[in-house]
Write a structure and sequence with these properties.
Elements (H helix, E strand, L loop, with lengths): L7 E3 L6 E3 L4 E2 L7 E2 L1 H12 L8 H4 L3 H9 L9 H14 L7 H12 L19
Antiparallel strand pairs: 1-2, 3-4
Helix pairs in contact: 3-4, 4-5
Length: about 130
Amino acid sequence: MEHLNEGFDICYKCGKSQEYGTMTDITHIGFDIYCDKCHDKIMGAVKEGNWPRTTTFYKNLDTYLATAVAEGFCEGENATEDEKICAWQWLIDTGRAWELQGFFGRTASDLISAGVCDKPFKDKKEGGDKIG
């Protein structure tokens, strides 16, 4: 019965449980922890410059939802840290961050400077923004 008092981590992506303290926190912002398998997949996408652009959440964003998540109102009230990063990256990629009120452009620039978000991804073949 002493095992009941021991903690377990639960992977944010797949739900797998593991002994407490053995999973990895990718964002270092929240408590989104990942098992080794999911961590390797996510970090592979990050290294290739695809995350968060390949996520379903990112692909389903529009200006309203992205701003709601970024500011934390209505639909964005309970957004995870990963969803917030996706929303900010979407606002940056579409250029909306600099079309909205000044807070968005300043915050987007700060997130890029801090390495949380990337500069807008340009598709070199077409010369335009490549979204998803």
